[in-house]
Write a structure and sequence with these properties.
This is Protein kinase domain-containing protein. GO terms for molecular function: ATP binding; protein serine/threonine kinase activity; ribonucleoprotein complex binding. InterPro entries: Kinase-like_dom_sf (IPR011009), Nucleotide-bd_a/b_plait_sf (IPR012677), Prot_kinase_dom (IPR000719), Protein_kinase_ATP_BS (IPR017441), UHMK1 (IPR034372). With 389 residues, this protein is an alpha+beta fold. It folds into 3 domains: 106 residues, Phosphorylase Kinase, domain 1 (2-Layer Sandwich); 197 residues, Transferase(Phosphotransferase) domain 1 (Transferase(Phosphotransferase), domain 1); 58 residues, no CATH class. The chain contains 13 helices and 13 strands. The strands form 4 sheets. The protein has a 6-stranded antiparallel sheet, covered by helices on one side. It has a 3-stranded antiparallel sheet with strand order 11-13-12, covered by helices on one side. The protein has a two-stranded antiparallel sheet with strand order 7-10. Helix 4 runs antiparallel to helix 6 and helix 8 runs antiparallel to helix 9.
C-alpha cells in the first residue's frame, strides 16, 4: 500500500523510554534543528534519539501529538539516495502492525537556507539493543523472547511476501511500541526487492549472514557479486538476535570466530546448556531448535519466516515477569496489592474503592477504563487502568 504525502495525526501514549533517550541525547543547538515546519504546523524538537552517517532521528511534538522525524543528510555525491530509498520502501509496505508507520514526507528549510529531506514517523520506545544493555549479562524471560520473535517473524513474513529483504535486522532496529504493545521493525535504508539488490554492502557486523559476508568481500575487491542475497539473510540476523536475548550477552566476537564458522550449531548447544537451569527444559529445546533452524550456513536450508512461526515454541503460553512489565512501557497502569479481600465482597466499599482509584489516577491523565478483579487471576489488584497523558 503506497503512503500518501500527508499524514494522520495520532495521539501517543506515555513515552518512558523516549524520555530516557532524551536525557542521553540532548540536543546540540549548533547541529540540530530546534523546530520543524511540517505541512504548515510548527513542531518542536525535544531530543535527538539517534544519529547515523546519513540521518538523524528526533523526538518532536505539536500540541499533544508526539512523533519522530528522520532527517537525511546529503550523500557523498550531494544527492538524496538514502531518503529516496527509505521513503520508497516504507511507502510500499505500510499497513502492518509490526512495521513502523510512515505518516508523511517533507522538506525542511534550515535558517541558513540548507534544505533537508525528512520522514515523519511513528514514535516508538525502547529498542531490543536497550533491553540487552539492561539485561546485565542475564537472559531475558521466555515471554519477552517469544513476544519479540513472533512480532519480528510476522513482520518478516509480510515483508518477504511483498518481495522485500530488510537487510539490516539487528537489536537497534527492533523497537517496542507502548501504544500497540508489540515490537516493530524500523530502518529500511538497506532494504531491496529480492532479485534486484541495489546496495552492495548489507547488514551490520555481528548480524551478517555468511553469504552477505562473502558478497561484501567480493564487492570490496571489485569483483562481480552475482544475483545478490535473498530473504534468508533476515532469518540469520534474527537467529543471532534471539540468541543474544536468551544469553543476555552480545555475540559479535563469537560469530566472527573460526569456531563459529566451523560449527555454529555446537556453540548454540553450549550456550543453551549453560543456561539450562534457568529455564524450563521443553521451551528451551523448542527455542534452541527454532534458532538453529535460522542459522544454517546454507541459505537454502534456513527456515523461512512463515515456517518459523509454526515452531512449537509459539504454542507454549508464557506470562510476563515483573521485570518485563518494568522494561516495556505500556499504556496500562497496573497497581498491585492496594486493597484487601474485605473490600471486595462489600458492594458499597467496592464501589467506593473504584471511585477512589479513579480519582487518584485522574491526577495523571484521563482514565479510559479501570478494573479491580474480584476473582483470580488478579484478585485484589487494580489492573487495566489505562491512563493516557
Amino acid at each position: 500500500m503506497a503512503c500518501c504525502s500527508g499524514y494522520t495525526a495520532k495521539m501517543s501514549s506515555p513515552k518512558v523510554a523516549a524520555a530516557m533517550a532524551a536525557t542521553s541525547g540532548a540536543i546540540d543547538s549548533q547541529s540540530s534543528p530546534v523546530l520543524f515546519e511540517i505541512y504548515g504546523e510548527i513542531w518542536k524538537v525535544h531530543a535527538r534519539l539517534g544519529q547515523g552517517v546519513s540521518a538523524s532521528v528526533y523526538r518532536v511534538s505539536s500540541g499533544k501529538v508526539t512523533s519522530a522525524v528522520k532527517e537525511f543528510q546529503a550523500d557523498a555525491q550531494g544527492g538524496d539516495y538514502g531518503y529516496l530509498k527509505e521513503s520508497s520502501v516504507l511507502g510500499k509496505i505500510q499497513g502492518h502492525k509490526n512495521i513502523v508507520t510512515l505518516y508523511g514526507m517533507f522538506t525542511n528549510q534550515s535558517p541558513v537556507g540548507v534544505a533537508t529531506h525528512c520522514l515523519l514517523l511513528e514514535l516508538l520506545d525502547v529498542s531490543v539493543s536497550d533491553l540487552l544493555v539492561r539485561a546485565n549479562n542475564q537472559g531475558h524471560s521466555m515471554w519477552l523472547i517469544q513476544h519479540c520473535a513472533r512480532d519480528v517473524l510476522e513482520a518478516l513474513t509480510f515483508l518477504h511476501r511483498e518481495g522485500y529483504v530488510h537487510a539490516d535486522l539487528k537489536p537497534r532496529n527492533i523497537l517496542w511500541s507502548a501504544e500497540d504493545e508489540c515490537f516493530k521493525l524500523i530502518d529500511f535504508g538497506l532494504s531491496f526487492k529480492e532479485g534486484h539488490q541495489d546496495v552492495k554492502y548489507i547488514q551490520t557486523d555481528g548480524y551478517r549472514a555468511p553469504e552477505a559476508e562473502e558478497q561484501n568481500s567480493l564487492a570490496q575487491a571489485g569483483l562481480e557479486t552475482g544475483s545478490g542475497c535473498t530473504i534468508a539473510v533476515d532469518l540469520w540476523s534474527l537467529g543471532i538476535v534471539l540468541l543474544e536475548m536468551f544469553s543476555g550477552i552480545k555475540l559479535k566476537e563469537t560469530v566472527k570466530s573460526q569456531e563459529w564458522k566451523d560449527n555454529c550449531s555446537a556453540i548454540v548447544d553450549h550456550i543453551f546448556s549453560s543456561n539450562a537451569l534457568v529455564y524450563p527444559a521443553i521451551p528451551v529445546f523448542h527455542l534452541r531448535d527454532l534458532i538453529k533452524s535460522m542459522l544454517h550456513n546454507d541459505p537454502k536450508r534456513r527456515s523461512t519466516a512463515e515456517v518459523a512461526l509454526l515452531s512449537p515454541f509459539f504454542s507454549i503460553p508464557f506470562a510476563p515477569h515483573i521485570e518485563d512489565l518494568v522494561l516495556l512501557p505500556t499504556p496500562v497502569l497496573r497497581l498491585l496489592n492496594v486493597i484487601d479481600d474485605n473490600h471486595l465482597y462489600n458492594d458499597d466499599e467496592y464501589e467506593d474503592v473504584i471511585e477512589d482509584m479513579k480519582e487518584e489516577c485522574q491526577k495523571y491523565g484521563t482514565v479510559v477504563s479501570l478494573l479491580i478483579p474480584k476473582e483470580n487471576p488478579g484478585k485484589g489488584q487494580v489492573s487495566q487502568a489505562e491512563v493516557y497523558l
